[in-house]
């Protein structure tokens, strides 16, 4: 028993010596970091360095051998089907495009994970969907189709859908990509509000410096050249004090605010 860590000392998420790859082609090696519950972690780095790939491993779309990814102490690769379901139901994912079904209304899109995992009385589902749409400011658009709303609104609808099962951890892939600056900053605000209100742990892949400094939390910098994490720290501290020029340069370009 003495060796058993107390539950509150188990990191919420632990990545240990993970290698990401496509077939024989290794993208990143020795990826190790831990996240506490409620923490926001920005995965940053140049285009094509492997940020989205890392996210795919973390949400189980790509699998690693055992011993590399743990959720609340459970090895993701060794989880039995029930544990796997329990873990993955705690995930909410906002993909780059918003990834809505074009033949379904906004409300139907948001209801989809609920229907799949927790079919409830239709009235209850309607209420839950309305609640999440209200959270992102889209309640009055619920009966429209994705093609009838703006790109920014589609992202918000994707976020409402990612939150419908009250996830403990939200993953975002380039949330501000393709958005006008006002919509992008609005989404940053919403992300921060959700984190503060619900204590949702967040992993955000981005290379948008405006977002990085608006959210201003921990960043993990992936570097294609060394195929590894080059820095792990607070955005502004790394920009001003990192001993690596590459990090300071990446974070300084356009970030003089
Ligand atoms: N499905 C895939 N099959 C093979 N290689 C891929 C695939 N997706 C991405 N890659 C390659 O993996 C590297 C990392 O890609 P990615 O994770 O998308 O980078 P980022 O999200 O940081 O821009 C890139 O060189 C990319 O070309
Ligand atoms: Mg990407």
How many beta-strand runs?
Answer: 10
Query: Based on CA inertia axes, which overall geometry fits?
Result: globular
User: Can you give the helix content as a percent range?
Assistant: 25-40%
Mean pLDDT over the residues = 91
First-residue to last-residue Cα separation: 51 Å
| Radius of gyration from the alpha-carbon trace, in angstroms | 19 Å
The SS-based structural class is: alpha/beta
**Could you give the order of the helices and strands?**
EEEHEEHEHHHEHEHEEHH
Adjacency order of strands in the biggest sheet: 6-7-8-3-9-10
Could you please describe the fold and organization of this structure?
- The protein is of the alpha/beta class.
- It has two domains: 1-90 and 169-257, P-loop containing nucleotide triphosphate hydrolases (Rossmann fold), CATH 3.40.50.300; 96-166, no CATH class.
- 37% of the residues lie in helices and 23% in strands.
- The protein has helices spanning 51-58, 81-88, 106-117, 122-135, 151-162, 181-198, 209-215, 235-241, 245-252; strands at 13-22, 25-35, 40-44, 69-71, 74-75, 91-94, 169-173, 201-205, 218-223, 228-234.
- The chain has a six-stranded mixed sheet. A four-stranded antiparallel sheet has the order 2-1-4-5, with helices on one face.
- Magnesium ion (MG) binds at residues 51-52, 174.
- Adenosine-5'-diphosphate (ADP) binds at residues 22, 27, 45, 47-53.
């Amino acid at each position: 028993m003495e060796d058993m860590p107390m539950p509150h000392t188990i990191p919420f998420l632990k990545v240990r010596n993970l290698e990401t790859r496509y077939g024989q082609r290794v993208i990143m090696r020795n990826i190790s970091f831990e996240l506490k519950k409620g923490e926001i972690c920005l995965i940053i780095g140049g285009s094509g360095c492997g940020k989205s790939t890392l996210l795919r491993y973390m949400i189980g779309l790509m699998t690693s051998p055992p011993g590399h990814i743990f959720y609340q102490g459970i090895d993701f690769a060794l989880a039995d089907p029930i544990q796997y379901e329990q873990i993955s139901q705690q995930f909410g994912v906002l993909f780059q495009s918003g990834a809505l079904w074009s033949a379904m209304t906004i409300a139907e899109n948001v209801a989809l994970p609920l229907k799949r995992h927790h079919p409830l009385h239709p009235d209850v589902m309607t209420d839950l969907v309305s609640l999440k749409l209200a959270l992102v400011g889209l309640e009055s658009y619920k009966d429209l189709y994705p093609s009838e709303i703006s790109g920014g609104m589609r992202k918000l609808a994707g976020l409402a859908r990612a939150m419908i099962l009250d996830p403990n951890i939200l993953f975002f892939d380039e949330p501000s990509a393709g958005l006008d600056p006002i919509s992008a900053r609005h989404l940053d605000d919403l992300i921060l509000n959700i984190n503060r209100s619900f204590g949702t742990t967040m992993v955000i892949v981005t290379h948008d410096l405006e977002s990085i400094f608006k959210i201003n939390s921990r960043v993990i910098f992936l570097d294609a050249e060394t195929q590894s994490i080059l820095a792990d720290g607070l955005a502004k501290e790394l920009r001003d004090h990192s001993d690596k020029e590459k990090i300071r340069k990446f974070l300084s370009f356009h970030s003089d605010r």
